[in-house]
Amino acid sequence: MPHTIVTDVCEGVADCVDACPVACIHDGPGKNVKGTDWYWIDFATCIDCGICIQVCPVEGAIVPEERPELQKTPL
Fold this sequence. Notes:
4 strands; metal ion binding; 4 iron, 4 sulfur cluster binding; about 15% helix; 7Fe_ferredoxin; iron-sulfur; 4Fe4S_Fe-S-bd
């Protein structure tokens, strides 16, 4: 099951982007409610490896399940 970046918790650190082995993490347009850049995970590409959670320094920014209601996904 893919992981989810919680849009309103993400602070745009982007350690997850470089660590992802399948390049499924992308930058989101604009800023989130915290006024920071944010990222989103392409659920169709994610292989559920968990590396993103391991490298993210922001507690609660990534959850280990597919929760589309927590992640804004640009069309």
